[in-house]
Amino acid sequence: MPKLIPVSWKFLVKRLNELGFEGPYSGGKHPFMIKGDLVLTIPNPHKIKIGVDLISKILKQAKISREEWLR
């Protein structure tokens, strides 16, 4: 199985958009994205890449499989 790799914030948002999420919208301390009834909080944009552990947590909350993410 291919492994997840760290990604930039822009790539994370672009990929989530491709997978049906709308946004990102600002609100509270962190931006969020919406898909149906699911509201997914995403990290604030930074210059550093988003690590594999955080990507795994985001995918779990978004109900996206690794295979679907890596397509």
UniProtKB/TrEMBL annotation:
GO MF annotation list: endonuclease activity; hydrolase activity; mRNA binding
Keywords: Endonuclease, Hydrolase, Nuclease, RNA-binding, Stress response, Toxin-antitoxin system
Pfam families in alphabetical order: HicA_toxin (PF07927)
Name listed for the protein in its UniProt record: YcfA-like protein
Source organism per UniProt: Candidatus Methanoperedens nitratireducens
